[in-house]
Amino acid sequence: MAKPATQRPKLPGVGRLGLVERQAQADLDALGWNTDAHVELLWSLSRAPDADSALRATVRLSEALGRDWAELDGALLKDRGLRGRLFAVLGSSLALGDHLVANPGSWRLLAGNVTLPVPAELKQMFGECADGVTSAATAVAPLRTLYRDRLLVLAALDVAPTVENEPVLPFTVVAEHLADLADAALAAALSVVTASVCGDDEAPALAVIAMGKCGARELNYVSDVDVIFVADDGSHSTLATATRIAGEMMRLAGEAFFEVDAALRPEGKQGQLVRTLDSHIAYYERWAKTWEFQALMKARPAAGDAGLGDRYIEALMPMVWTACEREDFVPEVQAMRRRVEALVPAGVRNRELKLGTGGLRDVEFAVQLLQLVHGRNDESLHVASTVNALAALGAGGYIGRDDAANMTASYEFLRLLEHRLQMQRLKRTHMLPETDDDEAMRWLARAAHMRPDGRHDALGVLREELKRQSHRVSRLHAKLFYQPLMESVGQPPLGFSVGMSTEAAERQLAALGYEGPQSALTHLAALTGGTGRRGRVQQVLLPTLLDWLSDTPDPDAGLLNYRRLSDELADQRWFLATLRDEGAVAKRLMHVLGTSAYVPGLLMRAPEVIQLYADGPNGPKLCDADADALAGSLVASAARHSDPLRAIAAARSLRRRELARIASADLLGMLDVTDVCRQLTAVWVAVLQAALDAVTRANTPESGPPARIAVIGMGRLGGGELGYGSDADVMFVCEPNSGVEESVAVKWSVTVAEQVRSRLGTPSSDPPLDVDTNLRPEGRQGPLVRTLASYEAYYSQWAQPWEIQALLRAHRVAGDQELGERFLLMIDETRYPPGGVSPEAVQEIRRIKARVDAERLPRGADPNTHTKLGRGGLADIEWTVQLLQLRFAHKIPALHNTSTLDTLNAIGAAELIAEGDIELLREAWLTATRARNALVLVRGKPTDQLPGPGKLANAVAVAAGWPGGDGGEFLDNYLRVTRRAKAVVLRIFGG
């Protein structure tokens, strides 16, 4: 009995089918899919990742089939599996749609009970295709068609669950099949080329070793296939023939299947394409780098002479598992991590599935490093694929079982997205669509089996899943390395039951950059000891903190500093809460603790600065402060105390806080070197003012102060260019108040000045506060304080050329402002004489500089890398600038400036020297100042000598903000910059 009309399925409209193109209805009509019999077929079409693309490709396929279209049309109505696979692949891959149109009969591969052939069957298929073919040119077309046919079948089975309820192919099955397909393709290409090159002659024994993802049998749909070629016979003729075969095989494979890359061979692209086994062994024993042993972990014979391939693996694999004992293992591993991070532009880091933060490379790098570290002692880790390695690491207790499972799931999810993106056009890509490209993201969601979950459609589910998986990979990346260490020092964390031995923990810490792994474990035990809140929070924090510390120049010192800081702040609940809740604070703090010996001590006495590591509405809070306003607060805070000792203690406290803030911002790259110098100067000026006020109040009789006092800054203090290790060069000038005899006023002023100097110079745990008065008239033999009239008399009669030069940087910094300004006006006649300085004075300054160069450099110092007195260092630049001031300031008012950089700008504006020379001098001054500051930050004490290449130089490079933190590159740049500047100095200063 016929079904009532009301119960018959109705043809859905194009809108309900997800078809949006105007041509859609016409295409459906052209195919004849407008009858009741096609309802189920149309609903299958609607479930394709891109129904419009699937329909468009079907129309093209029908045209290519011509009369044979009827066979496919009928099969689609009957075979639910066929229509599911066909629509899925046509809606997922434009490239495979083109392949079907070009080879329309290949649709039959998707009909019926479709299964994946095993490796032996694949090799037979490709072998039969290559059999009897002796020309590479004639082999390309049939081999390419066969390879695309096999990709078509795999892709259809892979994506069909989005259309029909077919079983989902596990990622591992897809990746292994792609690798097996590559093996068969390589073997076929080698067969064709060998027949073409050798003809009836005996072919040389040649093994093709698969590397990378192909070697690990975790290949992508579109990847370069990394290989290494190994020959058996080392004779010249045999190697020449083998090299020709290898080269032509790579070209044939590139035209027919995929790019073949042999860059992982010894010496890379500069090395021989084919080497003998003995030559390979010799290279890896003597010359190979850590990354080359890491690459060998995935080596596998893929084609060619199987026996030779097995001998290659047997010979080289033992070297892989001892690579972590190499002296340069740790720095090379760290350098590899930095290079990977530097490869990705910041603007696309969130879209990069492979190299971005929380991406595939994070997983692979972590897993391979753990394998290298523990593989010598545990053969179960000798596996190639990432998924198998994660399982082995979990089973061995090197990572938590739950962490291994979660990381595997995240890795497979990211690889799934990578496969779908590559499948679309069969192009190698790892880049997600733009986040605002809803259509592209919606297609990806459907192709990746994303389904609505009640709260989100497929697009929303994908976006949420991307955030979750990326965050989980980033979090687990640290846990993989460090969470198991927690159990080796105490109770295992919740849900973590399989532990790592103490020896394994020490081995792992050493490989991650900790030179004292036993001490590190002691610190971890102390930090996580006990059952209270602090221990639990530390157990949660430390895996991530240790990961960040391992990327600093001195992880051991960083961990020790963190332990001391944690002990110091044990009663401050906000400390651990801030690190737990503010990731930016924790990461920045670890960078500071593992780089600097200067800042940690300050933070222990001014811990509130750590809260400024957070980001505020206007950026990092460390940079939010107004240095001048804070300097005013310092003076005001000290003024609240009548006792000078307490007043100066208050000033020291605020100075400590400011030094911690400035140095932290500097280390974190938030301040440039000129801002650092300016803010350090402002702090020093405020301390001098606070100390002068406090001592003056304490020594003022009831009748009032006998004199007014002004403090004149000299040197870098006067120039506003103080560094962390700079003393405060000053002179004290006084003027008797009305009715006070000069001798009384001067005596009182000397008392005040001496107390200011002595009380500021009192030793403490803070960076020193040394006040240096040796630039006063007559130096150490002269009176500590003079009246303005006394200074004027001295400079008008007795000033030496070096004293005139020193006055170029004199500037009022503290005390009576009006008196200080009068002092500056008075010395203008001396430092900027109307007719300029005499030629004799210029000659004397040059003589003094030559003497300084010959005598002042410390014994044993390297004149090339001494930042102050070395070649092209600060003294060279500053003396050159000051000589130009002495010669031309009487003509050019803009040269009346105490700042080296500002004066250089004025010299350039006046065209006294070439602009190129100005740039060289400016760059050298900035480079030397930055390096000098970095030395203090790293070593914790004033020093001017840069170290040679090594760990300390790396730390200085990091503190100086050198990209990549390579100490060798930093020193090379310093030498280059200062060498060029020295040439300018010799030409200008030397006349």
Automatic annotation (TrEMBL):
User: What are its GO cellular component terms?
Assistant: cytosol
Annotated segments matching region Adenylyl transferase: 495-991
Q: Which key words tag this protein in UniProt?
A: ATP-binding, Magnesium, Multifunctional enzyme, Nucleotide-binding, Nucleotidyltransferase, Transferase
One of the protein's GO biological processes: regulation of glutamine family amino acid metabolic process
Q: What is its EC number?
A: 2.7.7.89, 2.7.7.42
Similarity comment text for this entry:
Belongs to the GlnE family.
Give the protein's recorded name. Bifunctional glutamine synthetase adenylyltransferase/adenylyl-removing enzyme
The taxonomic lineage of its organism, from the top, reads:
Bacteria, Bacillati, Actinomycetota, Actinomycetes, Mycobacteriales
